[in-house]
Amino acid sequence: MVKRGDLQEGISSSEDAAKNRRKRRKPIKSCAFCRKRKLRCDQQKPMCLTCKSRGRPDCLYTQEFTHSIEPDELFGSTPNIELLQKVDELEKKLNGKGLERENVAEKRKTARNPYANLYHFQCRGSGRRIAYGPTSLRTYLFNDNVEFVKRYNQLRSRKVKIEINKWKAANTWTRMSEFGVLESTLVENNNSNVLKQICESLPSYEQTLNIITDFFCNERGTNDINQVLDKNKVINDFKSSFLPGNKLQSNGERPIETLLLSINKNYYKIGVILMILCICHFYENTPPEVEKYVVMLTGFTTAKASFIEHAQFILLRYHHRELFLACGDDSHMISLVDLLCSSAVTLGLHLDIREVYKDQENIVGSLKSLENLWIWILLSDFNVSLNVGRCLAISSSYFQADEYENDDDSHTKTVNGLPATLFGESDTCVSKIKRFLRLARPMVDEIYDKSCFPDLEKNCKILIDFVETEFAPISYFISSDLISKVPLGETKVLLQVLNLLLTFYSLRFLVSRERGVVLKNNILQTILVSFSVVINTTRMCFDLDKEHFPELFAPDCPNLSPFMALSLAYTNFLFPRASSVFCSFLYHNLTLFEKGHYLSSDNIDQNLADWDLSTLNIPLDKDINILSAFQTYSEIFDGWLNSNNQELRNIMCRSCTFVAIIAMESICRTVLKKVIECRTRVENSRLQQLHNINTPIDPSLNDLHVTTNNVPMGDAPAVLLPDAQNNNNTVNGGSTQQELTNKDNTDVQNNEAGLAQIISDEFWAAYNTGWEELMNQPDYKCLFDTH
């Protein structure tokens, strides 16, 4: 029997359960105003009849919001409808941004840097191995066009290298002079040491002092490297370390009898002075005794050798090598620059120099010279990184770009009649080198960063803007008359920018497979501007040598004159890249038949007349013709190497690097001329047959460039064009005009492809035959006679 209390407890339990049971919430369809006042809402949108009749400014429906609305938000004492709408709008934007971030993150995870792992591994038969990275010219050549590389190497190995080896033998020239130190005979005289032997090969005390003084003379501008040294300190080091003898020579001067070391065994003070002599007196003919001392000094690895003169000595050795022993790809500089960068960081040059070396000028020299030393080391690191294709040896963490924002050598005066802001009043233009490094180093870092995708197109635009804002107009550099108004240091930095710009263009063409007209125009324009600047720089330096160093023009003088050596250091890295990329790029376009490329010379003169080399920006609607580009290239070099400049060529032939440059230009021109000759002959033969049978030809055949896809092609038996009789039969057979048009278009496209294949086959047959004849020519001068 259930008691009354128990029954009441059961009833209350069921009531509690009913209260706790979740109620079904119907969607609210009434507007907020009608709901609050419990009015009937007709639910019309955007405004119900009630709100409209009462003149309300708005009519809010809660289902418009993406989040739940609390009653207080709608019916509180101070409701804010606009705020609710704003919150809802922001939430939608955040949701969209979240999806966008997810997509970007996903892309970053899947995207790979396509440049980082690009390389060329050089394997010599002698056992030497060198890995070249993505920015190296060798990597570009050996990953670009296999057929071109094959022809290039054939011509180089079977013709050019033989002639260069003959030149080396005749001039007893080698880049392996360091090995001679190991192979030299030991001196049996126990009373003689390396320092004593060096004295016997040095000029007199007075002459050496004059050489050092001239080295710091900035009027000529041949030794811009002198800014990394303190003149007074170097002269004091000379007087305390190079002691003259008492016996006079026949000319009344005293010989250097003793090299005296300081108490702390700082051999590098002597090394710095010897490198000045190598740069300004011995040139490329360094005496064996001096070479032995330099090699031994370079090899010191103890911390006891951590002097500021150590970094200065290594940098001077690097500079001497780029003046007289340059090789084009900086592979001979790798070890020196590694040692140089390591020494710089060990010495704390990456820190605040004015704080770290405060009150030490009497020992290390002026603080300005140390700051310049650091910038030159950074530039050396950048050059080797770009030309060899490797990461920068000095981390970006050590190069604080913001420290160089306020350069102290900016001026508002004029230099040679031009604003000094273009040049800077300083002959060394260190401030411009700083700004260039601040811009360029992050770009090179990106190439090797596997976590990012470098935007090379954007970088190219930034570099072009840098040229336009930092330098005189390009017209000054491409003019043989105006370039003398520009300080040599400015030309040096411009050549650096052009080298980096051309490197990025090459990577876009090779890796990204960009084939647009804009990139093609930029490549050709940058290369031709580079050629013009290189040629004019060389000519100007030649004229300066004739003015300041006429004694070095004697026929029996074997040395490269100072300004010509400087021009070689400035242009050596750019010329091989521009020449090889130009040849490879034109070879690619000249041997492309799949899309119906045609060559013609009808409008070359007009194209040349319209060509403007005074800018790096090409109008987007302009399409540079490759034959016009080759013609411009030929004219640039014809003016350099013609018979009127025989004296210039004689000076250039004193340098193995210049000989290699002349040979490289000859290789490129020979390869391209043979391609153009064979292709023009084959095309003219085929196109003449089209004229003979009175086949209508698209006017674009007279273009210097690519024809349209509707150009009728061919009269070869295998690809005859459809004649009018066949077309009429098709119409009479019941085909509509549209069907006929479609069929004709298909036939034309098939005939176009067929004729392209025929021209391609005939071209390669003629080209291979002509190439073998070229290779069999015995005379080098005949082979490369381009005049």
UniProtKB/TrEMBL annotation:
CDD domains according to UniProt: fungal_TF_MHR (cd12148), GAL4 (cd00067)
Gene3D superfamilies, sorted: Zn(2)-C6 fungal-type DNA-binding domain
PROSITE patterns: ZN2_CY6_FUNGAL_1, ZN2_CY6_FUNGAL_2
GO molecular function, one term: DNA-binding transcription factor activity, RNA polymerase II-specific
Positions of the Zn(2)-C6 fungal-type domain: 30-61
Pfam family, one: Zn_clus
Annotated InterPro entries: Yeast_MDR_Regulatory, Zn2-C6_fun-type_DNA-bd_sf, Zn2Cys6_DnaBD
UniProt xrefs under SUPFAM superfamilies: Zn2/Cys6 DNA-binding domain (SSF57701)
Segments of this protein annotated with the region Disordered: 1-23
Name by which UniProt lists this protein: Transcription factor
